[in-house]
Design a protein that fits this description.
The chain is of the alpha+beta class. 59% of the residues lie in helices and 15% in strands. A five-stranded antiparallel beta sheet has the order 4-3-2-1-5. The protein has a three-stranded antiparallel beta sheet with strand order 6-8-7, with helices on one face. A two-stranded antiparallel ribbon has the order 9-10. Helix 2 runs antiparallel to helix 4, helix 3 packs antiparallel against helix 5 and helix 6 packs antiparallel against helix 9. The radius of gyration is 35 Å and the shape is elongated.
């Protein structure tokens, strides 16, 4: 392309190009001024600040493309490449709007976490709200992305024709799409059911597949369980709808912990109860609700003693159980070593050595 041809192509674009440049400058300057004003107005408010910060880039893209859109549509149809520019601006505007919708939806999760922090003593209500918000926000984000892709594809005439053809054979197409999308739809419905009924919540203590851990994240398709030894168990959403599992913090974070010990029948239980009380009262892990000792089983050699203690949550209960177990064992070993479990033998039975001639010879 020579200079004259290039000039003949670009000259008609001069007025439109100037208008686009002005629109870009007005959009950028106006958006920055608006952001500065909003930040000043909401500088002492956490929640508006979260939305303002999150929408900084996506909002700028939407504002600029909204200003550009009427300019390119008002441009003469004779301009070289104007159809491609119009189509590109339309797709970019859809993408920017989708981006902004996803960003604002995800920010709702952060806002609810700020309004209902989970790092408090009784965080059951906070975890319930955070779980619902997080699951529903991720579902909405996925829907926004799918809608954005669909609207972008519909801007192509060929895609609209394909859609019309598919509608003509909707029975077969619906069956094929239904079969292919069954896992995704099942996870979507499972996520919705978890958000509404809440068999699990963020930070719940659960036992899944024999593993003890906490619900770390509830995603679009999987739940991540943080195991106590820093492993991660990834479980499909449907698992928590279709299979049984243990939830230790379903109705409350408070929990009872047990410690089992085997001791001799001669062990004084009152002394053991007093020692358990002393151990519990000296540690902040105990929530002052339950502290007792019971005999839960006996055998021909010893009796089983259960120490039952309470704690505010499962993490404290685990540490308290270990502390009680160590403390009681040390007390018995130190103060009553003769009552540790032992095997009794009797050298005589009816005046004769036990075991017959072999025992006598030995």
């Amino acid at each position: 392309m020579d200079i004259q041809t290039l000039e003949s192509v670009l000259r008609p674009w001069l007025a439109t190009g100037i208008s686009l440049t002005v629109a870009l400058a007005v959009g950028v300057i106006g958006w920055r001024v608006a952001l500065a004003f909003l930040r000043r107005v909401s500088r002492h408010r956490v929640i508006p600040g979260l939305f303002i910060t999150a929408s900084k880039n996506a909002g700028l893209a939407v504002v600029v493309l909204v200003l550009v859109q009427p300019i390119v549509h008002a441009a003469p149809d004779s301009l070289f490449g104007i159809a491609v520019v119009r189509h590109s601006v339309a797709i970019l505007l859809i993408a920017a709007a989708t981006w902004l919708a996803v960003v604002l939806t995800n920010t709702v999760t952060d806002a609810m976490s700020a309004l209902h922090p989970a790092d408090v003593e009784n965080n059951l209500q906070a975890r319930r709200i955070q779980t619902q918000t997080r699951v529903l926000a991720r579902m909405l984000s996925s829907i926004f992305v799918l809608l954005g892709i669909a609207f972008a594809l519909l801007t192509f005439p060929d895609v609209r024709n394909i859609g019309t053809s598919l509608l003509a054979s909707a029975g077969i197409a619906g069956l094929v799409v239904g079969i292919a999308a069954r896992p995704a739809l099942a996870n979507l419905l499972a996520g919705l059911q978890i958000a509404l009924t809440q068999p699990i919540r963020i930070d719940d203590v659960v036992i899944v597949e024999g593993e003890w851990g906490r619900i770390e994240d509830i995603g679009r398709a999987f739940v991540t369980v943080a195991i106590w030894d820093q492993r991660r168990l990834v479980v499909p959403l449907q698992y928590f709808i279709e299979k049984p599992f243990q939830n230790w913090t379903r109705s409350s974070s408070e929990i009872l912990g047990t410690v089992f010990l085997w001791v001799d029948y001669g062990m004084p239980l009152d002394a053991l109860r007093a020692e358990l009380k002393r151990i519990c009262e000296e540690t902040p892990l105990w929530d002052k609700r339950v502290c007792l000792i019971q005999v839960t089983d006996v055998s021909e050699r010893a009796m089983q003693v259960r120490a039952l203690v309470s704690a505010a949550d499962a993490g404290r209960a685990w540490d308290l159980r270990c502390l009680v177990r160590e403390g009681l064992l040390d007390y018995i070993r130190r103060e009553h070593p003769q009552f540790l479990p032992r095997v009794r033998t009797d050298g005589e039975a009816g005046g004769k050595p036990v075991g017959g001639p072999i025992a006598a010879n030995a």
